[in-house]
User: Fold this.
Amino acid sequence: MIHYSMISFPGDRPVNEDSIGAFTKDNKACFILCDGLGGHGMGDAASQLVVKVFEDLFQKSDDMTNFIGQAFMASESLLLMEQQQKHIKDKMKTTGVTLVIDDDVAHIGHVGDSRLYVFKWNRVKMRTIDHSVPQMLVKSREIKESEIRYHPDRNLLLRVLGVDWDEPMYELSEP
Assistant:
């Protein structure tokens, strides 16, 4: 049995652009958090749409092995289609992080800078690595990990949902 809580704070923004979802069936569970990009407009709609896609696909899917990649790709396609139909290119963008549990196997996927942490014995065992400019600078050893939080480009993302990419924009990992 899995116990969980979901909470979101809009901070000092008038609109909470976060969307979260938790879905279960049989011995499977899917948790997703999306943080809409407010500076682009309609981030709240983008994050809600992605959570809904994950929920719909999760309820229909029996094979969790490829579920995360399929759900991110379906979300991306739907976001791009919505942008085109509503003539709102460069809007409706969001980050996303998900955890899917299939019996005793955990699958993790993410896009952007929404993080998932895995703890063991009150210590961080693993976390997703941001798709952000400062994280790229850490990888290239130009800055230290501790400098990310206050870096002037900390809000510049290299990957988000709602942007047409030539290659998959999500990243998958196993804890």
Helices lie at 43-60, 67-85, 133-139. The chain is about 25% helix and 25% strand. The first helix runs from residue 43 to 60. The chain has a mean pLDDT of 89.
